[in-house]
Fold this protein.
Amino acid sequence: MATLRTPPEASKPGTGPGSGAAPGLPAGAAGPAAAGLPLAGGGSIAGARSIRRMARAITANRKATVGTALLVLFIFVALFPGLIARDNPQAEIYPRSQTPSAQHWLGTTSFGQDMFSQVIWGTRPVLLIAFGVGLLATVIAMLIGVAAAYLGGAWDGTLNVITDVLLVIPLFPLLIIIGSYLHGAGTSVMIAVIAATGWSYTARQLRAQALSLRNRDFLSAAKVRGERPLYIICVEIIPTMTSLLVAAFLTNALYAVLFSSSLQFIGLGDPNVTSWGTMLYWAQNNEAFQTGLPLWIIVPGLCIVALGAAFALLNYAFDEIGNPALRPARSIRRVRAQRAR
Amino acid sequence: MPSVPGDSSPAGPAAPASGTVLEVCDLSVSYLLEQGTVLAVDDVSFDLTPGEFLGIVGESGCGKSTLLFAIAQLLVPPAEITSGSVIFKGRNMVGLTDRELTTVRWKNLSVVMQSAMNALNPVKSIGAQFADAMRAHGVASKGEIADRSAEVLKMVGIDPVHLKSYPHQLSGGMRQRSMIAMALLFTPDLVIMDEPTSALDVVAQRSLMVQIKELQEQLGFAIIFVTHDMSLVSHFSDRLMVMYGGVVAEFGATRQVFDTPLHPYSIGLMEAFPSIRGPRVPLTGIPGSPPNLASIPPGCRFAARCPKVMARCEAEPPELYQVDGTLVRCFLHGGEGPGDD
Amino acid sequence: MRFVLRRMGFFLLTLWVALTLNFVLPRLMPGNPALAIIGKFRGGISPQAVKVLEAQFGVGTHQNLVAQYFGYLGNVATLKFGTSLTTQPGASVGRIVFDAIPWTLGLVGITTILAFVLGTGIGIVSAWWRGGRLDSLMPPVFVIMTVIPYFWIGLMLILIFGVKLRLLPYFFSYNYALTPGFNAAFIGNVAEHAILPAFTLLITTIGVWILTMRNTMITTLAEDYVRMARAKGLPARRIMFDYAARNAILPNLTGFAMSLGFVVGGAILIEEVFNYQGVGYLLLQAVNNEDYPLMQALFLLITVAVLVAILLSDLATAIFDPRTRGAG
């Protein structure tokens, strides 16, 4: 009856709780390979194995494939916008407030800019912020979470309190205030500020998993060898947590996209940078709906949704891969029908 | 008398042989997974007379718990009864819906699970859970519920004041006993127990077993007792069934199976337990591990680990052969060809 | 009891951090923001307002940082938040904020509870009825629902119901031709204006509850005590609610508290989009007008509100989960 379970996480918007192996299977059966679960034994070997298992799991899961496809599309657009849209997105050279036509696939803004090229060129800042925050926030969360778990005692207590306080303070109002004092934030400032305030949730998750690994044998072996704590943290623990780190990256990236667009929408972004959020800001300020330019609002918003969905789907797929109980339960009849073919 | 395979009709309710409370005929249970079908229980048959104590032993993964849940109709997808029947008091329970089973459940057939901490609802008091069971079966008056609850608790030696306690407030032994008390609320004809003593220490185990046996003699219910601890159950059971790899390996009167085991697996189990009396002999374990139930080897399932394996064993699976009232699944004791005795 | 006390201690700690942030942030920025404002309003601010500004922003004082800090804390404790610089020049910040609170409380409070109750209910039922074709479809749909920016949904609803169909009003909290009063006409008008913002908030927040409740429920349904309840022959509805849901909802209660931060952010954006005169709209006005005293007061208010809600949900957890109570 005993099954392997990682410690339960508190629930969070956008993702489901991650937990351990499927309950209820007989121990002797070769049950579904629990892809993504950290294995005991050897740091870097487990890391490489996890990555290979992850790749296989991604192609098998439909949500993961859709998410990956969307993400790849956006990355491509961000890297090579010039290939897709020739116009300078900022150039106010066209007739204003045009509806879609052959020359302007989405029409023009009330400043005379080509909307399509705005959307295309606007992809890069958004992705920069997403990946920037994703990376930075995850690194901070990882260092704090794993250090708290591994060092324990007073360190753990203090870091926990800091994490919890940051978790509770309403972040969006805080970001608004900071943005206001700064009189608007460009891309790099935004990455720094969002990452500096938003690492706490994923830090908690990583700490929980690190705690469950703390007493594993391969760590005791490293300690007996005389390795220093920093080495153990970096070389032994972290590679085993790959799948959770990827999930944390996705969570932070998603959060960054939504928050940065929202900040830009209220005018706290850099008005000289073309991105989806700033497009929406200008659209709203120029009464896009009332002047017959609904696409100005619809399209950038859809892009945000699509990018966010990519991150969220991938994250959800990761949850399913780690906890097979969450997978869609095909009815027994269908499995038998499949079997019969 | 244990039934001979091939004699019983597998489908439909049959008129009960005189005095049997349970007839299991050719029961097979599979786990229908996407990766393949795992045959957890293969063609198990036995009868149970009123007041009989049947012990089922085997190592983890041999299918004994699955068999138990199959009998109680508590399987959850992807597990499914794929063939056979379970005739309880003249009625085949396989295929009945939960609602149809309500009349039988708990009033005639109750279940005791391995870990009371997991089997009891953590947010309800013991008394509330007793009341739930009684109300589900038509006992409405609060006085009756209170009286009966107190009565069963006293039967297992717990002070009725604990009806107000929550599961986490009781000790392990008390929790197990309150589970047993709950099982006896309606003085059922059959109580199925899934390793109820495994979570306890040796002393508590012993006292619990003694109590169970006393209650059985007092109230006259039949017991199916599943465990991996052969020596513990053999002091109390009337008949003993040894399972291996999803099939019945040996089945007969406890004294016979225990004193003169016939199947090499049973012999191995016996030799793995040191005897506190008698000469000191070196312990021999059973090398190897249980078969992978997703891809069952042809021939005898124990062949890979059997010290007495013959060429024939790996080619064809043995049937159950009768030897002095005990059933054994081994070519050493039956089947044509060399080695027949 | 100890549990509640510990949580209150945490509450006070977080409040202190928020206050300190309010104090520290403007002083960290290159060039004190308030200096610019004072310069703009040379002579146009009352002496009391200047005093409060000094404590809040350290402008034009000769006190050292520590004295300023305690002066600031003292002001907050006595509810002296200063006067609004630019939004409603000269008006007391406390007054302005106080007027806006009921609007937000009504909108956000009611909608959040509704979303939680509905979402949890749908989550429970959807976990119970697994295996159908809907099951593979629903989660991705809900996942996508959770990533839609709050403000964009509001804008879309405005487009459809306000501009195109002209069914519902979408500007301001009520028709400002009417005079406010406790009469049916006014209240009806208020309700009408609240429909679109409330619906927006509902759509964006409900997905989270459905998803997390469903996932927790699925894990709970696999637990032994649910199997045991089946074995006892309990009716399906009782198992679903009394055994499964009661346990599955516990992590959701904690999650509710944590997600409040996000809901607050969403409310701010939605009020902005609909010009709904609540606390969020006020905050953004203050930001646009660089009305720092007002901004700071609002930040504190929002933080306190979130903390109170968290405390309440902790209480609820203590009530529903006997394991958190006392020494048992």
In short: Residues 1-44 of chain A have pLDDT under 50 and may be disordered.
